[in-house]
Amino acid sequence: MATQPKNPAATRVPYVLQNRERNPQAGQNLKIAAIAWLVAAIYYFFQYVLRSAPSVMMPQLSTALGMNMVGVASVVGLFYYGYSPFSLIAGAGMDLAGPRKIVPIAAAAAGLGALLFATGNTTAVSVGRLLQGAGGVFAPVGAIYIASKYFRPSQAATLIGATQMFGMAGGAAGQFIVGPLIARGLAWDTFWIGLGITILMISGLLLTLLPKDETPKDPVPQQTIGRGFYLVFRNPQSILCGLIAGLLFIPTTIFDMVWGVRYLQDAHGLDYASAVFRTAMVPLGWIIGCPLLGFISDRLRRRKPVIIGAAGLLLVCLAWILFGAPGVLPPYLLGLVAGIASGSAMLPYTVIKEANPPQFGGIATGVVNFLNFTFSALLGPVFGWLLQYLSGASGTMQLHHYQIAFAPLLLGVAIAIGLAFFLKETGSSTQVSLSQVEQEVHP
To answer: For tag attachment on the chain, is the N or C end more exposed, with fewer CB atoms within 10 Å?
Structure first.
């Protein structure tokens, strides 16, 4: 039988907190950790620029690659084929080696992927998009790992929400800023070259500023990678977290960030600039919703009510976007509110860490990321194929084509709401107070 820790309470708090009294430098370490988290979050910002920018240059990419829109969407979707499986590698790597040894390398790979994407060669573009996803996944996993390792559990949901806020700020920038630049004549390949160089520079910054990992000198025997994956995947709560997050993310990753601009142009006759600004409201809403919903969850000391309530709001917004009468609501309101409500997809990232042993925090984050974005990887081409099938030989997509193709998103959000009822509440109201834990750790 595996040896248990001598003090069970010690497994409920971050390592830095456990050693706060024994290590006089713990306060300084927290300051260093705050800087490290910020740098990793900035990398996450640019990762989302990589992810969302193709949506505002689909015609240019179609011409450069010699593909129709569905083909381009499939190539763009390769991002998630790198992102999803490398989520597991990223999570295990954090627990094994710490962020400093692997996040800078991952950022360099993402930067190289952007440069390959700029070549316009179909094979290089595909490989580049895979590298962007594979390297990019280390940004959120690294930032969440740092936040969970060095900061109080009572701050977990807020910090994880703030991490996603940085990412969605990049998602908004990839549409809100890049779209007008492309419209004013910036060559698409020039943009990707500049972005690749920027991310390579961030890689060097990460190598310089990320602190050396501080790990317990005597880790418990259970702390092995294989054991961690076994425990996390074996936990039904982990699977529920991944399914809920994936179903709540798809409206953003596939509908908004790939087809959003085309939907507004084809189905509602909007001009390019207006379509870009409206789709950018969704990631802008995420910027507000992620920290806001995390803060509300921490204040309520509950996770489930916030997930269920916000997902219900997302369901209403998505139904109106697809089937509602145009012109009834202010033009930017629906996208903004949908984005705010979508921030609930980050709360399962908190729940999975609270529902699994803390020494496997990196693996837990990797597992929920893997399950989450496997949906985007597998279903992205399906939606593209369905739109192509519905539009027929003409290739002209109309409102009813989009309504039929994306109506399953409503079912997906409804299923996520139903699954959330089966989550075990992990909020702080169900746990002992931090002061109690500290007394147990330092009697």
So the answer is: N
DSSP notation for 396-438: ---HHHHHHHHTHHHHHHHHHHHHHTTSPP-SGGGS--HHHHH
Q: Considering only CA atoms, which of 244, 214, 220, 234 is closest in space to residue 350?
A: 244
Q: Which of 20-29, 102-111, 144-153, 390-399 has the highest mean pLDDT?
A: 102-111
Find where tokens 């999975």 sit: 352
Residue 214: per-residue pLDDT: 54
pTM summary value: 0.78
Alpha-carbon torsion (419, 87, 290, 27), positive or negative: positive
Is the CB of residue 79 less than 8 Å from the CB of residue 51?
yes
Tokens standing for residue 2: 């595996």
What pLDDT is stored for residue 2 in this prediction?
40
The identity of residue 322, as a single letter, is: L
Superfamily of domain 31-209+223-434: MFS general substrate transporter like domains (1.20.1250.20)
Of 21-25, 114-118, 162-166, 243-247, give the lowest mean pLDDT range. Answer: 21-25
Q: Which amino acid is at 131?
A: L
Contacts for 375 with CB less than 8 Å, ≥ 6 apart: 246, 247, 249, 250
Short-list 294, 298, 284, 266, CA closest to 397: 266
Cα–Cα distance, 314 to 335 (Å, whole number): 10
Q: pLDDT tens digits for 25-47?
A: 555 667 777 888 888 899 999 99
Cα–Cα dist 356/364, whole Å = 7
Q: How far is CA 221 from the centre of its chain?
A: 31
Q: Residue 94 and residue 108: Cα distance in Å, rounded?
A: 17
Q: Show Cβ contacts of residue 56 under 8 Å, excluding neighbours closer than 6 positions.
A: 174, 175, 178, 179, 182, 261, 276
